[in-house]
Amino acid sequence: MISGAEIMVKCLEAEGVKVVFGYPGATICPFYDKLYDSSIKHVLVRQEQNAAHAASGYSRCSGLPGVCVATSGPGATNLITGIATAYADSVPMIAITGQVKSDLLGRDVFQEADITGACEPFVKHSYLVSKTEDLPRIFKEAFHIASTGRKGPVLIDIPMDIQQNEIESFEYPDKVNIIGYKPNTRGHAVQIKRAVEAIKNSRRPLIVSGGGVLSSGVKPKFQAFADKTRIPVISTMMGIGVMPSDHEMYLGMLGTHGKPVANRALHDADLVIVCGARLGDRAVAAPDQMSEKTTVIHIDIDPAEIGKNVKTEIPIVGDMKNVLNMLCDEIGDYVVPNQWQETVKGWKKSFYRTPPKFDGFVEPRALVQKLSSMLKSKAILVADVGQNQIWCANNFMIRDGRFLTTGGMGTMGYSIPASVGVKFARPTRDVVVVCGDGSFQMSMNELATIVGNDLAIKIIIMRNHRLGMVRELQDVFYEKRHSGTILEGDPDFQKIAEAYGIDHAEVNSNEEAEEILRTVVKSDKPFILVCNVYPDTPSI
Amino acid sequence: MQYTLSVLVENHAGVLSKISGLFSRRGFNIDSLAVGVTNNPEVSRITIVANGDEYVVEQLEKQLNKVIPVIKVKRLAEGEFISRELILIKVHCAASKRAEIIKTAEIMQAKIVDVAPSCVTVEYCECTNRVETLIDLLRPYGIREIVRTGTIAIDRGNTALSV
Q: Which of A206, A313, A474, B25 is the most exposed place for a label (fewest CB within 10 A)?
């Protein structure tokens, strides 16, 4: 005989899960008890939302679905923001929640919450398990759904009695058969031909790369395609890292907070190839204007994205990997008109500005730029949300590493817990967090997780005593009325670091910051660097 | 423009809420929704009648297709399908008006299914336009209560929607 809880652990093992991030409680105890005997590492976070963010960070850097676990009721509802973040950012994740016993469901008993109902808009799929026998099939399906097609979180809610019940034997299915779920991963050959023809007929083609290129694991092929065709590339926030930042034909991030040169290129292009991007309002503020004069080719695994925000002439539904292969075959030795290449290169030079300096403060944009050169080429930078995110997005020079942030959902407090997951996925890489003093305080409780697991994560806090991005918005649109954006009562972050036993420093200039970082990035211990930033420093 | 969608879904608990939630969440306006099991007991068929432009209906189809237990979505072509809804109308009916109301029902091929001292209940199964006509004809007598099923629809001819 084997219990549901044991089956849950065996299912995770069968899926190759090495680590889960979670927070226990009464209704998930049967599972935790069996997990105790397993080789799967459990990472105890300090609040459930952070378990989901950690699983997201893990997932984005390992390519495997991250797993987070919480108990019923408040444990489960705390997960929601993390699940919603993974959903908006298309990150594969399995969220496991305990639930009250089946016969108590719907009676509003202690720690009961309808979590499958509450998460409905934020999950790719969810299960409320009603029979122990169903567990193997459900786990198999959940991992399949999370990690194929457009990736996303899947929730499995498991009542306590389902975990406790015993059945005869365990067998993990080797196949799934979900009749309504067969994502189309092959691009349509006719559409590919049309796309290539349109590219060849265009004079100023441009590629917009999104997170889809990264999540389909096709970065090298993508770079080869861009290299060969010399089509200039811009990216959405989620697509940053698709190209090395200093690549001749790469122009940076587009959008409201993007690089002027990227937006200029988008404005002037006569054909745009959108690769795995949804083009939300922060990326393209006026999609109608764009589609009026530009031919749009949109490649996406999710047919619902195509034509949703930007009118599309040539839709191609499929996995980037397959579509790119087909495009490469079809396009032959096509190269972009020389004039367009030269125009773009010219812009790149003329648009460059060195950020102004404020004496007695750290200039965050210059520091982030410098930081890139101190790290190993495969370094992973995790930015939070707000001005710190924009400073990093536009200035971190990626070589062969990653830039992680939540570009879709924009959840403050993401960076520290996500970096925990990143470090578990890539223990040998340099992992650096950049956050603001606002976002740091949203998840500084996770310093305990960092210390408890000896994770060499370097945290840079850009402290301006403001919720800087909202402050900036108020400056422009609300007559500088700083309603609720001044962070009063902040603690001494150095003392916080001290309390957790983390080495730390506080600096007021880039020179000091660089000197400290140069040695700190090489150490195998965590570090907190508090950078005092001039409060009026702009995002761009 | 009004359009009719036929949606085949897995016949599980919770599937309907996944679908109905989608409408409010994404701001789609639906006129009616009817659901029932098909000849395959594992599959239910939902008929949705909704209003909107081409963009809206395309998005609606695509978003429905993303719901995992949704097996198939088909937009029925204008004029190429038969649609029906069932309505029960309780009409105020003084004895002196009874013959008139029965005559009206007869002309429309509706059925009187219940008679009470001051009411009759009319049953009618037709397309929405005819149903509306009957309501208009009965309104002057005083409608006490209406209950409708929502539209169901099926393609004309040889084509059959199946899994």
A: B25
Q: What is the pTM for the complete model shown?
A: 0.94
Judge whether A470 and A372 are in contact, CB under 8 Å: no
For the stretch A158-196, pLDDT in tens is 999 999 999 999 999 999 999 999 998 899 999 999 999
Return the SS3 of A239. Answer: helix
For residue A120, give the chain B residue with the closest CA.
B18
pLDDT by residue (tens digit) across A369-408? 999 999 999 999 999 999 999 999 999 999 999 999 999 9
Q: Regarding the domain with residue range A2-166, which homologous superfamily does it belong to in the CATH classification?
A: Thiamin diphosphate (ThDP)-binding fold, Pyr/PP domains (3.40.50.970)
Q: Give the range of the structural domain holding residue B63, as residue numbers without chain letter.
A: 2-75
**At B44, which CATH number?**
3.30.70.260
Q: Is residue B158 part of a domain?
A: no
Name A477's Cβ contacts closer than 8 Å, sequence gap at least 6. Answer: none
Considering only the beta carbons, identify the residue of B21, B59, B70 that sits closest to A121. B21
The two tokens of residue A421 are 């997951």
How far apart are alpha carbons A370 and A364 in whole angstroms? 10
Contacts of A124 in chain B (CB under 8 A): 68
Same domain? For B11 and B36 the reply is yes
Hey, are the CB atoms on B66 and A302 less than 8 Å from each other? yes
Give the residue from A276, A284, A230, A216 showing the smallest Cα distance to A253.
Answer: A284
pLDDT values of chain B reduced to their tens digit, one per residue, 163 residues? 889 999 999 998 889 888 988 888 888 888 999 999 999 999 999 999 998 888 888 999 999 999 999 999 999 998 999 999 999 999 999 989 999 999 999 999 999 999 999 999 999 999 999 999 999 999 999 999 999 999 999 999 999 998 8
Q: Quote the ipTM score.
A: 0.89
Q: What is the CATH number of the domain that holds B132?
A: 3.30.70.1150
Pairs of CB atoms within 8 A across A/B: 36
Helices (H) then strands (E): counts for chain B: 4, 9
Q: Name the residue among B78, B4, B9 with its Cα closest to residue B48.
A: B4
How many whole angstroms separate alpha carbon A498 and alpha carbon A505?
Answer: 10
Q: How many domains does chain B have?
A: 2
> Which of A120, A128, A308 has the CB atom closest to B18's CB atom?
A120
CATH class of A189-350: alpha beta
